[in-house]
Amino acid sequence: MSQTKEIPLMEKIVSLCKRKGFIFQSSEIYGGINGFWDYGPLGAELKRNLRTTWWNAMMREREDVVPLDATIIMHPAIWKASGHVDTFADPMSTCKSCKKLVRSDQWWAMMCEQPWVQSLAALVEPGTDAFHTGDLLKWAKGKGKQLAPNLALVRNPEITLSWLAQDHEQGKRPQDAREFYLYLATEQRNVTGFVTPCPHCGGELTEPRPFNLMLRTHYGPIESDDNLCYLRPETAQAIFAQFKNVVDSTRVKVPFGIGQIGKAFRNEITPRNFTFRSREFEQMELEFFIPPDEVVQLIHGNVSTWSEGADLSTPQPNWGWEMWHRYWVAQRTAYYAGIGLGPDVLDYYWQSKADLAHYARACVDILFKFPFGTEELEGIAARGDFDLSQHQKHSGKPLEVFDEELRAAAVKLTDEQRAAFITKVQEDWNDHNKSREDATLFCERLLKGFYVPHVIEPSAGLDRLALAVLALAYTEIEKTDAKGAKETVTVMRFHPRIAPKKVAVFPLLKNKPELVSKARGVYDLLKKHLAADYDEGGSIGKRYARQDEAGTPFCVTVDFDTLGERGPELLDTVTLRHRDDGSQERVKISDLLGRLLPLVQ
Questions:
Q1: Residues of the domain holding 538
Q2: Are 155 and 148 in contact (CB under 8 A)?
Q3: Is 396 inside a domain boundary?
Q4: Of 382, 360, 62, 386, nearest to 237 (Cα)?
Q5: Which residues 6+ apart lie within 8 Å of 328 measured at CB?
Q6: Both 202 and 238 in a single domain?
Q7: For 457-492, what is each residue's pLDDT tens digit?
Q8: At which of 182, 210, 238 does a domain end?
């Protein structure tokens, strides 16, 4: 008897997304376009709910954050100042045979996903590097021709295997699984050196070269270098460019934040893992501006630094950048917990000094355990004053703030104290590879009450978050019917706050006008206040199953008891069914809103 092939979880999620209307391939009727995705009726609702939870957490529930909605296309000088024109690149290789592009730093991850690599891996003894040349030769003349036609092992198996076996006998064995595939892609290492195989066809990849990820376009009627512009690769730079306007037009005062949700575009070399890495995506970013530690020291006489067990619940005036950074990690962790992403599915990567951008003081990646591996969901970076300083330098416009309290504290310093302060700043800046001259200029402006704020940046991807909650919600349950037959059903266990539809209303029977009329009335009552669905097709069991697959947390059924047929005590009551445990309860129609709203907000 043949065994049923196990379908990978990610394939099941992708299939459900199309079947239920969460996510579609963009331009699918024309063959699709790689790296672009459309959100269907349920997916659009899901994204909207995620946007709302982020917006409420960052804007509505705080007094120290204001919003911005900036354009996708901005002056190209912004991207020159930010470094994107010169340095925003990924390493790219091209296959000499199939001509496909491969992002070089993701080569091994792509290799592990390929059928030809997986089939070859089965020929190596588990836990060892032992293999049999006969098995490899058989594979090369069979499966290899279909799966990896341009691999050296397939094109010239005898030559490749002869020196591979010779090296193996001399103890020059592959150091790891990666090197094993380098051997199989190389005909004669003494002539060419190791060849890196193309994940798609096994052919030889070129040496990596930088590839700028920004998508170019032009504004105006004529295409020329004079009107070259870019689709923004991130939403953050607009916040920095509009920083002064926000400060001048509002009553905000450092520390404060500017938040934005919007589209961004990156010409990814190899979009992959469904919507995780796309060419068009949506970001939810906050730039939270804080005073430099030197300002805190002058005003408050000390700078509160991070230590294990520090209280991060309420910001304090003497917090330094490290406390603010830890605070925002805690805040974002609490946000994720509030939509169902707890410590069991999240992880954290605190970047080392070698990982950090040259201007960053610290950065932590909040990771989610996706079906294809643990990957970044959000980055929270302490970016110093790099961004505002760059735009101040390139635009020639001042982006400093003036702090009266700072100037008052500076005025109180004696000449000796001022000299000691400047010397301390110069020493500290030297430790961070900043010039003595820059430190001196900084102090001159600081002691007059002016400074460029530093920033903490929590930056989350909305599409990645949508994929994370889809993956977390996906649940398969085995049920047994009255006849003993077993079936596997899918339930999407979204947290009620983010579920696309909050409630579905059913009449028990669609051919009973009195039930339909009552159910319609209940639906009209609910839909004004929360996302509701109305369904009268098929049996109640099938309708429950449809809503379970859509992730609807509550279903309301209008039956004959609602009409009072079994007694006046049940008149105008309905059955409220809970998705996750299948429990049911009778609830008065007049109490429905009061019962449901606290559960979904």
A1: 501-600
A2: no
A3: yes
A4: 386
A5: 288, 380, 456, 458
A6: no
A7: 999 999 999 999 999 999 999 887 777 788 899 999
A8: 210
Q: Helix, strand or coil for residue 389?
A: helix
386 found inside a domain: yes
pTM: 0.87
Residue 471 belongs to a domain = no
Torsion of CA 416, 421, 427, 429, to 10 degrees: -150
d(CA 569, CA 585): 14
The per-residue b/e assignment along 376-401, b for 16 or more CB within 10 angstroms, e otherwise, is ebbbbbbbbbbbbbbbbeeeeeebbb
> In this structure, are 167 and 280 located in the same domain?
no
Torsion angle, alpha carbons of 105, 107, 110, 115, to 10: -170
Contact 136, 123 (CB under 8 A): yes
DSSP three-state, residue 564: coil
Asked whether the beta carbons of 574 and 562 are under 8 A apart, the reply is yes
Same domain, 244 and 381: yes
3-state SS, residue 469: helix
**Count of structural domains within the chain:** 3
Measure Cα distances from 338 to 284, 335, 579 in Å.
17, 5, 19
Residues 510 and 460 placed together within one structural domain of the fold: no
174 with 61, same domain: the answer is no
Within 13 Å, how many C-alpha atoms sit on residue 487's CB side?
Answer: 8
- Establish if 387 belongs to a structural domain: yes
487-524 residue pLDDT tens: 899 999 999 999 999 999 999 999 999 999 999 999 99
Task: Mark whether 161 and 233 lie in a shared domain.
Answer: no
